[in-house]
Amino acid sequence: MKRLLMMGACCLFVFGTSSAYGDDRNVILVPQEVKSIFLEEMRTHLDNLNEITQALSAGDFKTAAYIAENKMGFGHSVREVMQQQGRTDEEIEEMLMKLRESKSRIDHPGRGMGRFMPDEVREMGRVFHDAAAHFANIAKNVATPPTTDDYQRVFTALSEIIDVCSACHSSYRVE
Ligand code: HEC
């Protein structure tokens, strides 16, 4: 979390600030149509978070893991498109592996919002996807019946996802 906030602080001069209304967050400039898709995706992330907490309160760790992995994990947009195309899980994992390995996202910018974002924001997006993958992994490995320790681990991992949401929001806004 501290590291994330510091990352935000380091970028101040790259983006410039606008504090007319006391809002000194860095501005990410994107085309208007990208902005509305970006904010829509953000609202979906809040829905995803809600679905995860609902699944956890029902003791349904598999569904919580599924949502984090499929809707918040690295390449979730690619995954969604490929699922709609009826591709197999193997094909999807192979494609995501290729994307992960590609040295430069400029060669493989993917389908997600990252391709419109400056490097620093994309890096924070990557931390977000990693936190989601970590959560999914913890949630998948819960014992039956779940122990108190399991619940603690799961909620710690969930709060690590939320930390990244908060860190990004306190550093950036879109225009
Ligand atoms: C990589 C950076 C980043 C991450 C990670 C991130 N967001 Fe955002 N989010 C933004 C930015 C930038 C905005 C626009 C804020 C603004 O312009 O005031 C935003 C806006 C939002 C909005 C407002 C949408 C609207 O219609 O105005 C919601 C809701 C939201 N985010 C939820 C989340 C949730 C929940 C998470 C984590 C699960 C999350 N975000 C993670 C960058 C991020």
TrEMBL record:
Signal sequence annotation: 1-20
Organism encoding this protein: Terasakiella brassicae
InterPro entries: Cyt_c/b562, Cyt_c_II
GO biological process, one term: electron transport chain
Gene Ontology molecular functions: electron transfer activity; heme binding; iron ion binding
SUPFAM superfamilies linked to this entry: Cytochromes
Keywords annotated in UniProt: Signal
Protein name per Swiss-Prot or TrEMBL: Cytochrome C
